[in-house]
Design goal:
Blueprint lengths: L2 H10 L17 H7 L5 H9 L4 H4 L5 E6 L16 H15 L2 E6 L5 H11 L5 E4 L6 H12 L4 E3 H21 L8 E4 L3 H13 L6 E5 L2 E2 L11 H4 L10 H5 L4 E4 L8 H5 L6 E4 L9 H7 L4 E4 L14 H10 L7 H14 L6 H6 L20 H16 L9 H12 L1 H14 L3 E5 L5 H13 L2 E6 L2 H11 L7 E3 L7 H12 L6 H7 L3 H10 L5 E4 L5 H11 L10 E7 L4 E5 L9 H17 L5 E5 L10 H16 L4 E6 L1 H5 L1 H7 L11 E3 L3 H13 L4 E8 L5 E3 L6 H20 L8 H7 L4
Parallel strand pairs: 1-2, 1-3, 3-4, 5-6, 5-8, 8-9, 9-10, 11-12, 11-14, 12-13, 14-21, 16-19, 17-18, 17-19
Antiparallel strand pairs: 6-7, 15-16, 15-20
Helix pairs in contact: 5-14, 6-7, 8-9, 8-15, 14-17, 15-17, 17-18, 18-19, 19-31, 19-32, 20-31, 22-23, 24-25, 26-27
Length: about 775
Amino acid sequence: MTRREEALEYHRKGRPGKIAVVPTKPLNNQRDLSLAYSPGVAEPCLEIKRDPEEAYAYTAKGNLVAVVTNGTAVLGLGNIGALAGKPVMEGKGNLFKQFADLDVFDLEVGSEDPQDVIRFCQLLEPTVGGINLEDIRAPDCFLIEETLRKTLKIPVFHDDQHGTAIISGAALLNALEIVDKPLDAVRVVFSGAGSAAIATAEHYVRLGVKRENIVLCDRQGVVRDDREPSAMDPYKARFATSRDLHDLADAMRGADVFVGLSVAGACSPEMVRSMAGRPIIFALANPVPEILPDEVRAVRDDAIVATGRSDYPNQVNNVLGFPFIFRGALDVRATEINEDMKMAATRSLALLAKQDVPDSVAALYGLRGVRFGPDYLIPFPFDPRVLLWVAPAVAWAAVASGVATDFCEMEEYRHQLEARLGKARGMMRGLINRAIKSPKRIVFPEGDEPRVIRAASQLVDDGIAYPILLGDRGKITGIAEEAKIALEGIEIEDPATSSKREAYARFLWEKRQRKGWSLDEARRRLYNGNYFGSCMVANGDADALVSGVNLHYPETVRPALEVIGAHPKAGIVSGLYLLVFEHHVVICGDTTVNIDPTAEQLAQIAYAASRIARTIGLEPRIAMLSFSNFGSVRHPEAEKVAKAVQLLRERDASLVVDGEMQADTAIEPQIIRRDYPFSTLKETANVLIFPNLSAGNIAYKLLNHLGGATAIGPILVGMNRPVHVLERGADVQDIVNMSAVAVIDAQERERGRSSRALSSEETQQVFSRL
């Protein structure tokens, strides 16, 4: 299909359009109906009548944005009308939801009269928490926004004006830092003098660019102060110049910065050639910029270039701004989006670009080793960290500038935002907070793997653990220097030259001499980092081991089992996964180790899983799964599961456990209540124990990939000392997350109370918004 046909098919396939209203409360029976509507709905109505602020407690207002247009300046299509602009507004709604979990009503106003748009928006104030104006022509957009900001007590933001200003402002700050030019000395030329250009120029002035150093060019040429008043609106007039400049080519000579907000091809290579040394080119027209980056580089190899396109470095995309600005504004119930909040968004984006880019983010763009520099001035649009940086910055600016009507503690607010990114992130933040309270020594056998080195650096920066990297010191140091990763706080141990080698060899030989090993064999095995690291943990020189980035699962598990072994009270090692869904967390076991466990082993696997559940703040409800429901099928495998239930109850009578049962029985409480009222399991199970490895491994992978769950694991339980195995190919964040789990494991063993549940405060942190 052609690109046009693909675009049309994308919008019309399935349910037409791109957005839908999704209920957030159940409506399954007469009782639900009476609560959702008459007579129950009268109660919140009366509460809101008594106190209008209660609307934020009883309705969706606080998370609802209106995207409003009259279709007079839609993208580069011009005045195509309100109805034709609807696909764009629906798309904007989709972006709000996907990037910041904000709900949207897209509202297309059938009038070109700005007063009609103003009155329409004023009448919307009881419905929504904020208004995003979109695709309204200049100068009408200026009048509409100014009037609404004065008359409404909810945030109003015209993204066409301020979005580009905020994002390109961040790029400008970082580009000028790279070329070592001060803001108050640079000359800036704009191609285009519409709403985006004027708002961006004003924003640059607030950043520190001198107004007299900015030149605007429109279709008539340079905006000069000797123009006829009829050809000059008051917004352009603020930048009118008296200098002897008449067209874009004149203005570009000796200029430091070019900002294109006009049309394709407006800037020629000759114009770029005439600019000052180390010029900055922001060619932001879409879909074809004023000049292509390749054309710039053909004449100026010292230039820094940004465009609005995703197929070139430095994409200035408004999605880096509006979702997060509204998120921060609505979360503190700001009455407006003021200049302080816009400035906070710009500066937070500029600072974020200087942080290490996670491998998982770079991989989305087919890149590796992304670092701050000429080709990376601003964060990528799909970097999930943008929410965690921009929204808090905007919220805090609203509080500090006096326009917030609610307050949120910033650290807790960041945790809430992480939960919006994905429940697994929110959960991991709680676990990481717990790890930070008492960091432990984590040994990484794959110490010369760049992802491991980067993760180790992050562990030190975040205070989660004290990393020990195994490998050749020169190689590790060289990789770190090339990737510009700081090694401060990271210990490096080379198994080939370590002073511990001989002691570990004798220790290993004594453990394995009746398994056919000689002392020389033990010495040879220690060249393998997993054997050496396991010896470190076994001898107390490290508190936990994390490995498996580049290894198959057995290659990591076998050395740990041979050196450290299972805990005497456990007798069996198993692998568990946490599967995090939208509203709940499920522990699955065994998913990685035991092919066909006995009833006794199943009972131990379930017991270990219950301890993990309590460690992360879950009160375990265990379902022992089978193809049979409580004896409905007589078969040895079903009987094995039933016996495991009996053994587990004998071991710990306080546990809520039942089975054998089918999977739907375990997760649908109404089945239990209807058909099996005798069961001790009255609610949805949160620990699922599978009868064999085939069932467990298949089930968790299907739930992960088809069921929409996020998988955290595998978590290795039953070991005599903390050992945790990564999935092959794990990225930096996976390594950090598993290291936090390993630290908590070590903490619990040190306290001698590995079944300790989280305090109520810790549980609230872990499951914030779950």
